[in-house]
């Protein structure tokens, strides 16, 4: 069994801590196709950058969570408001969108420090 990849869909990133300056402008070769090193990439639902800071992930997540919350709010009644069961469902949907991809990293409830390489 061998690993098969789609070279045109392949992404690469250079992980670093910044102590040696910016990462080099280079590429890796997959099946004779050069793949440029990017500043961030999506992997298993998370946007990673070269410093493992998740800043790009959260920057992109804000718009997505706001969009889901706005779409759900348009479905809710605006007279007398929703009952407690609907509010709980609304909160759980928005919460699950916000925490998607963070499940194996401590449950999302602890304070996380920034990882350094």
UniProtKB/TrEMBL annotation:
Keywords: Nucleotidyltransferase, RNA-directed DNA polymerase, Transferase. It comes from the Eukaryota. The keyword Transferase applies. GO terms for molecular function: RNA-directed DNA polymerase activity. This is Reverse transcriptase. The lineage of its organism: Eukaryota, Metazoa, Ecdysozoa, Arthropoda, Hexapoda.
């Amino acid at each position: 069994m061998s690993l098969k990849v789609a070279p045109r869909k392949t992404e690469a990133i250079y992980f670093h801590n910044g102590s040696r300056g910016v990462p080099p402008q280079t590429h890796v070769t997959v099946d004779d196709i050069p793949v440029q090193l990017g500043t961030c990439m999506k992997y298993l639902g998370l946007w990673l950058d070269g410093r493992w800071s998740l800043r790009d992930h959260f920057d992109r997540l804000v718009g997505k969570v706001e969009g889901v919350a706005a779409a759900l709010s348009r479905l809710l009644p605006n007279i007398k408001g929703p009952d407690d069961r609907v509010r709980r469902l609304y909160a759980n949907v928005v919460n699950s969108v916000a925490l998607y991809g963070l499940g194996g990293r401590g449950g999302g409830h602890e304070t996380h420090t920034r990882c350094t390489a």
